Amino acid sequence: MATDFYQRLIDKYEPLTEAALLTLISVRQPINGADIPAKIEALTDHQLQLGLGALFTNLHAMTRDYLIKEQVSSDDVHTYEITGSGEAVLVAERERLALLSHLLDTPVK
Questions:
Q1: What is the mean pLDDT of residues 34-53?
Q2: Residue 67 CB contacts under 8 Å (≥ 6 apart), including other chains
Q3: DSSP 3-state assignment of 58?
Q4: Given pLDDT bands bounded at 50, 70 and 90, which one contains residue 2?
């Protein structure tokens, strides 16, 4: 039953947008929402940035779909962390991107 749930989420999100992929990667460890843009910049060696609109749109949608869990502290600090469902979506996207990467490395006949 869990695999059916995961598959529905994978089908909904695949292929991930760049913003969605970066959002999921950035919350693999618990993180304050305000720190996510800096983490994405650091992870990508300052080559990629994610605007706040795209970030919070993805956080909201992925929290609603149980890819990410959100905790709000008593002083209104929002902390986000990926769920098992989110990891399943990331694994599927990694496999999809690996296939595409392989195709890029394969000579055209």
A1: 93
A2: 9, 13, 24, 82, 83, 85, 86, 89
A3: helix
A4: low
Q: Which helix (H) or strand (E) holds 32?
A: strand 31-32
pLDDT of residue 12: 83
Q: What is the three-state SS of 33-70?
A: HHHHHHHHHHHCCCCCCCCHHHHHHHHHHHHHCCCEEE
**Domain ranges, ordered by start, for the chain:** 2-105
- Confidence category of residue 6, pLDDT binned at 50, 70, 90: confident
Sign of CA pseudo-dihedral 68, 64, 2, 97: negative
Q: Which fold has domain 2-105?
A: Arc Repressor Mutant, subunit A (1.10.10)
- Flag whether pLDDT at 108 surpasses 70: yes
Residues 6+ apart with CB under 8 A from 68: 23, 24, 27, 59, 62, 80, 81, 82, 83, 86
Residue reference for tokens 């599927």: 92
**pLDDT at residue 29, rounded to an integer:** 97
